[in-house]
From TrEMBL:
Residues 26-385 form the Aminotransferase class I/classII large domain. The keyword Transferase applies. Keywords: Aminotransferase, Pyridoxal phosphate, Transferase. It comes from Melittangium boletus DSM 14713. Belongs to the class-I pyridoxal-phosphate-dependent aminotransferase family. Pfam families: Aminotran_1_2 (PF00155). Gene3D superfamilies: Aspartate Aminotransferase, domain 1, Type I PLP-dependent aspartate aminotransferase-like (Major domain). Transmembrane segments: none annotated. This is Aminotransferase. The lineage of its organism: Bacteria, Pseudomonadati, Myxococcota, Myxococcia, Myxococcales. The keyword Transferase applies.
Length: 389
């Protein structure tokens, strides 16, 4: 076993999906929809295969998809001037994109600032490139903050001479926080001061609930020239298994990421790229419906959790809810989630795994529930929680 993988166990998502299967539990753990995306997009993939789009795509991605990514950025996020030829690389999911950004921009010994709780691949990927993470905890809503928030002094203190990259994730998994333009402007200033690049993971860009609005970090003054935007079609089109992702960045940064990408996967599945171009060009009504459906599912799960006596933070975006489990008398989040999946028949994710070991306690009073599930499943989960807790 190489030392870089020695400390890594099985990801919490695989672990709890396996437990859910074994115990016949309703799986609100790993974040994947139990429904498919639009038929028109499936049809496009089918047609792409039948019409012979079956050999390697160019390493940067099919031109039709890079053009669709550029158009989509302008249409929904006001990100004008994306040159599909010099500013876009298609990757195998956001997961590969994140790894290639770290490979392309961060040296061993550099420091990477990120917020906790973090999406778990950040921590592993920072370690893979021999860099050191500097984590700043997001704080839960309280009497003076209506949403998850961060202490500006704590962020300032995390930046230093070795800081090379800031990782942002908005809308945020697992808190559901949507970073405001003002918060991003503060971070932009700090990054300019320290000449730090930004990886902005925006895979939940279309799952945002009013009054929150998604702000593409790269549209904030001072961030355009230093930001690599990462996204994918998994969440926006309910095809998480397709693993079609991409990065958008100024040419010099795109080049750095592309140099890594060409030797990590070289290229991503061609027919799925062709279909993803169709998806990104779906009419506005598709995206409005997606949001409306997720809002309804959010309300349904919130109601279910409330009936089971679980207080929850209302997410502004993403398809996750963090519920307060501290009063349940079942131990920490890991013990609670194990009890839940084996005895109550519901799988959830213990969020302490999204914190560095020294901050684990911050996640131990919560459990993460995914609401990217059909009504019948959400109702079944609610019933089991009410009866079993
Ligand atoms: N970033 C975040 C915040 C995620 O939640 C996920 C997966 N759910 C990813 C990246 C990975 O996306 P993909 O499936 O496109 O690799
Ligand atoms: N991003 C998904 C989640 O947070 C899981 C992705 C994975 O299994 N790696 O649930």
């Amino acid at each position: 076993l190489a030392s870089r993988v020695g400390p890594l166990g099985t990801t919490v998502f695989s672990e709890f999906s396996a437990l859910a299967l074994k115990h016949g539990a309703v799986n609100l753990g790993q974040g994947f929809p139990d429904f498919d995306g639009p038929d028109a997009v499936k049809e496009a993939a089918h047609q792409a295969i039948l019409s012979g789009i079956n050999q390697y795509a160019p390493s940067v991605g099919l031109k039709v998809l890079r053009e669709a990514i550029a158009e989509h950025g302008a249409r929904f996020h006001g990100q004008e001037g994306i040159d599909p030829d010099t500013m876009v690389t298609v990757t195998s999911g956001a997961t590969e994109a994140i790894f290639c950004v770290l490979l392309g921009l961060v040296d061993p010994g550099d420091e990477v600032v990120a917020f906790e709780p973090f999406y778990d691949s950040y921590d592993a990927n920072i370690a893979f490139v021999g860099a050191r993470p500097r984590y700043v905890p997001l704080r839960p809503p309280d009497a003076t903050h209506a949403t998850w928030w961060f202490d500006r002094d704590e962020v300032r203190a995390a930046f230093g001479p070795r800081t090379r990259l800031l990782i942002l994730n908005t809308p945020h998994n697992p808190t559901g926080k949507v970073f405001t333009r003002e918060e991003l402007a503060f971070l932009a200033e700090l990054c300019a001061e320290h000449d730090v690049k930004v990886l902005s993971d925006e895979v939940y860009e279309h799952i945002v609930f009013a009054p929150a609005r998604h702000v593409r970090a790269a549209t904030v003054p001072g961030l355009a020239e230093r930001t690599v935007t990462v996204s994918s079609g998994g969440k926006s089109f309910s095809f998480t298994g397709w693993k079609v992702g991409w990065i958008i960045a100024p040419p010099a940064l795109r080049d750095a990421v592309q140099r890594a990408h060409q030797f990590v996967t070289f290229a991503t599945a061609s027919p799925l790229q062709a279909a993803m171009a169709v998806a990104l060009r779906l009419p506005d009504t598709y995206f409005e419906q997606l949001r409306a459906q997720y809002l309804a599912r959010r309300e349904r799960l919130l109601a279910g959790l409330a009936q089971a006596g679980l207080k929850a933070h209302v997410p502004e975006g993403s398809y996750f809810i963090l519920a307060d489990i501290s009063g349940q008398g079942l131990g920490d989040d890991v013990a609670f989630c194990r009890h839940l999946v084996t005895r109550v028949g519901v799988a959830a994710i213990p969020p302490s795994v999204f914190y560095a070991p020294e901050h684990r306690h911050l996640g131990q009073g919560m459990a993460r529930f995914a609401f990217c599930k059909s009504d019948a499943i959400l109702d079944d989960a609610a019933r089991r929680l009410k009866d079993g807790l």
